[in-house]
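Re: the pair you flagged

First of the two:
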Amino acid sequence: MANKEHLVLLKQGVETWNQWRETHPEIKPDLRIADLRGLYLKGVNLSKVNLSQTNLSQAYLRGANLSQAYLRGAVLRSANLSQTNLNDAHLSMADLRGADLNQANLTMADLSEANLYLADLSEANLQLADLRGADLTRSDLFAADLSKADLFAADLSRTQALNAKFNQAILTGVCIEDWKINSDTEFERSLCDYIYLQNNLKQRRPINRTFALGEFTKICQSFKQSNFPKKPGLSLITRIQETGFF
């Protein structure tokens, strides 16, 4: 459970809280399982704070510092996390449905098995992030940087990935049902053994083998050379089904 003194301090306002953090850098605040729904916490310093299973639904956290915060199993539904610093934060199994993560710094963040359904990750920095098994269904990845991220078995169904960067990312086992990309989506040296064209592990491609090294990247690049429109994008499934790669 949350430390009651820490909880009282936070609810006194961001200015009071941040001053206390600055005065007592040796203290690691404990806000576990706290109910912080709808709080206005713009610019708050929650770096290294234990927020596991805390309810931050609809909280306003724009520009907050959550670097190395522990948010395993936290509820952040429809929270405003735009421009937040979530570098190296632990968000495994967190509920981020409908959250605004526009321009957030999520480098090296652990988002494994997180629920990011309908989340806005446009222009977010997700380099080296752990997204294994994450649900990114209908999320917005416009111009997001996922270079070197691990997306093993992530669900990218109906994700908008226009202008996104997947350079050197691990894409093995991802579901790309109605995934949208465009000519500015980058896949340089991405790693992928196989994909699924439908969720629930249906329509595996290739069916009876794995992609050769660089094969998936070549497929994506061949689509980019087809001069298809940048907007509204195209379904990669349609292109893959039309190829002779399988």
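Second of the two:
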Amino acid sequence: MYSDASASNHKNRRTGSRLWRSLPPPLQRGLKAAPVIGPLLQAHGLFPELQAQVGELHAQAAALLSQLAAAVQQSTHAAAQSQRQAQAQEQQQRLEALLRELTIGQNMQVWRNIADDPERRAVSALECFGRKGYSQNDEDGILIEIFRRIGIAHRTFVEVGVGNGLENNTALWLKQGWRGAWFEGNPHHMRFIRENFAPAIAAKQLTAVETLVNRENCSGLIADAGFTGEIDLLSIDVDGNDYYIFEQLRGITPRVVVIEYNAKFPPPLRWVIPYDPGFIWDGSDWFGASLEAMNDVFRQKGYCLVGCNVTGANAFFVRDDLVVNRFHRPGEVAAHYQPARYFLTMGLFAYLGGHPASPRGGLNPAAR
């Protein structure tokens, strides 16, 4: 192993050697001989013209050697600068990793302070059961607990707004052998679904429809996909007209509904965007409806609020006839409201889903 100094000297010698080998052989020989031959000829007064040539060659040698020294020095400087840049990049990467770990740790503490709260634990509040599988946040764990309490009837689902199918509220149930329908308006997402969920589609386990769903077409689209009457799970996440879609929906009676709400407006505030059938979310807080307003329309249709997820993104409603004695403080909006903690989505739950999601299915041995 070289020390820093010896390594630098060794590199300098290699650089000088390469430059020397690049010179023509006659010039190499002349450079070697010039310092010796010139003085000898001058001392004996021999061959004045040759003396001039040797002197010129000697001057060229001095200039070349000076250039060689400058090149070596520049090479050394460049190597040192490159080494400093590499060290700085490594230091930056370490700092970023440390900051990421600290952020995840802090966000984990925020989540656990809620999920492990003794009062919530004592009453089995749903946020205590949150877990991420294929959901964006902790919705999978909450749904598992809801169905543990009310049971599973048909193993069916409908989801409006599914992304590319790898992260939504029903992918976990699809992989449990449930049958369902996905509606998605993004053509790139739907192309991915058709290509990567082809076995489930071919087996009639999954119906995938590319369309923008609104209150005018929602009931017909779901009926055309083959779902009527009671289903186990409905999820609506279209970043805009969620309120209006559920308000107008007819033909199915979900046992459980997951729906996005706008946490910017806490109870008792009632707020909803004006209806626009072609609404596209612009990333601002102009979307959806407040939890209080959402609860109003669900109460009218016979559903009860039983919880919200910890990021303040989704609310969970269960049909009234399935609620009795199974949930804490059912229907109390203020008790279940969760404020917007969207920072937990990328700052925590993005790291809690295990390995990257695969579209490939699997088997539930108990369902065969």
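Residues 48-115 form the longest helix (68 residues).

-B.
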